[in-house]
Amino acid sequence: MAEVLSPDEVDRQLGAGWERDDDEIVRVYEFDDYLDGVAFAASVGEVAEEEFHHPEITIRYEAVEVRLTSHEEGGITEKDLRLADLFDDEF
Ligand SMILES: C[C@H](O)[C@H](O)[C@H]1CNC2=NC(N)=NC(=O)C2=N1
What we know:
Elements: H1 7-13, E1 19-21, E2 24-30, H2 34-51, E3 56-60, E4 63-68, H3 78-90
Antiparallel strand pairs: 1-2, 2-4, 3-4
Protein name: 4a-hydroxytetrahydrobiopterin dehydratase
GO molecular function, one term: 4-alpha-hydroxytetrahydrobiopterin dehydratase activity
Keywords: Lyase
């Protein structure tokens, strides 16, 4: 089981556009077109299923919010940081 990272460690490793929110990391991706956001959310879902580590995805008009935490571990782990990088590659 991955270890829960300290807030400072998370902040040190967070990629651009990501923020720590309590025991989650979050990024809001913005789009010019609603359906581009829908397609992005689907690609995030594909990556999550491949990695078997699943975010909370909220699709809004021209924006998609992605939240990650490691439920089993009860906090933010390297798995969340790695998935964040993989999701950024889809953007
Ligand atoms: C049984 C448990 O739900 C699974 O092992 C996986 C599924 N996807 C998951 N996703 C996330 N974000 N955290 C988990 O702990 C997790 N666990």
